[in-house]
Design goal:
single chain; 144 residues; alpha+beta; Alpha-Beta Plaits; four-stranded antiparallel beta sheet; 41% helix; elongated; disordered N terminus; N-reg_PII-like_a/b; Ion_tolerance_CutA
Length: 144
Amino acid sequence: MRTCWCALLVSSVLIALFYSQMSGARLASTALRIVYVTVPNHDVGLSIARSVVENKLAACVNIVPGIKSVYIWEGKVNEDSEELLIMKTNEKQLEPLRKEVVRLHPYEVPEFVSLPIDHASEPYGQWVLKNSLPDPAEAEENSS
C-alpha cells in the first residue's frame, strides 16, 4: 500500500489550521469533505483528477507534487515518490467518488481518506456543493 502517513498528517494539520483561521461561516451541516488520495505519478493523478471533476464527484482537486512516502507493504519498509490529491466534495458523493478512484487507481490498496470540513466561507462552501453534485436532469437520466 503506497500511502504517506507523514504527508497526510502534515496536510491534515495545515488544512485544519487554514480552515480554523478563516473568518468563514460554519456550514449548517458537515456536508463538505476533503478527500486525500496518493498516486504514483503526475499522469495518474491528472487522469483521476479530471475524471472526478468532469463527473462532478469533486468540485476541485489539488495535485501536490514531490511527496515522499515511507510505508510498510508486504512486511517490508518501502520509500516512494508520490503525489497527493486533495479533493473537495460533499458527503453525498463519497461512495461514488471512492468507486471512481478505485476504478482508475493502479495501486492494489489505494489511499482514500475523507475528513469533514468544519468551517468554510459561505460562497466557497456553496460552490463546492454546487459543483460536486450531478445536475438534477443528469441524475434523473442516470437513474432511469
